Amino acid sequence: MSWCILCHGYMQEQVSWGILFGTDPVPAACEPCLEKLTKISGPRCSRCSRPMEEERVCGDCERWGAGVLDRNLSVYSYTDSVKEIMNLYKFRGDAELVRLFETDIRTVAKQLPKKAMLVPIPLSIERLQERGFNQAELLAKAIRRPILLPLERITSEKQSKKSRRERLAGGPLFKLSSDHLLQGAVLVIVDDIYTTGNTVYQAARLLKDAGAASVSSLTLIRG
């Protein structure tokens, strides 16, 4: 007998070859709850995954310019239901909800370069103590690729509380730790949500300046 991790309702047992051999996770939620996770499909910005009416580079990416972040891949659109689930996962400390996203994020991660190593966006010490886990690091672990931790957060301010203008006008968010050799590395930044792009672009600049050959990002949600 199994229970939905989100609504706590009873789920009928599902059996597949992938589940039997351990290559697929046992479903963590019932179908109605999984349907609340709106996957990005159709035309989107070719650089940041923003859903659009036609496939092209969006205005934000044109302003950022090319050369720092190669590409962002995102899994879900930021709908009201996705926002509600993320509030449970991120702000109310329900780390187990990462199981909801495992299958979908692994599917999108198949588009990443084979040599890519993952760099989860770090939390400040204060935020990590408050929350008890780093949501980006849990997502990176779910992807099952090598993980590096070369970034340190230098501010504890919540980006989610800032306006778009405040985020873009703010100071540096990260610094590089000194014990990582990144020359020639193929890196993918992992974070929970891409909104203005400021967080991943700041991280990408540091990684590129440290010698990374390429830097992309994989984010769970495109806001």
TrEMBL record:
CDD domains, sorted: PRTases_typeI (cd06223)
Listed SUPFAM superfamilies: PRTase-like
Protein name: ComF family protein
Biological source species: Metabacillus mangrovi
Family statement drawn from the similarity comment of this UniProt entry: Belongs to the ComF/GntX family.
PANTHER family: DNA UTILIZATION PROTEIN YHGH
Pfam (any one): DZR_2
Domain Phosphoribosyltransferase: residue ranges: 158-222
Residues in Double zinc ribbon domain copies: 28-61
Domain of life per record: Bacteria
